[in-house]
Amino acid sequence: MSDQQRVQRYGKAIWETSRADESTISVTGADIVARAVMAVADAEQAELQAELALFKRGGKTLGHTIEWQCKAALDATGLHHLIDEDGDGDWALVWEHLAELKPRAEAAEAKVARVEAALRLLDGEHITPQGASILRAVMAEAQS
Question: Is the domain of 24 the same as that of 58?
Fold first, then answer.
């Protein structure tokens, strides 16, 4: 809340409190201001509590997301033995291994695409010469 908004809020609260107490002679200006300040402070406290609850929910969601990602990284790499039950361990090595999986996965996807391309070149029951050359290249790559 900006200072200008805060001043407007206090001014409004003072105005409303003083109007409500116009007929009461015993209420002094200081009492009116004190009541107005307390009313605004109570409203601000309620807003801050609502904001705090929102941040707590966000933090909880973020914590669950990070925990899920860490478990997925461990499952993908198979490096569960590097991390203790309390979550301490060599996470840098886990993330390095995870990063190394991408090129291997991309290479495997490329091989599958080449085999699928060769299979599309089937001529009835016989593979075409172009399809055969693709399959030979994939098989040679797999053996090396």
Answer: yes
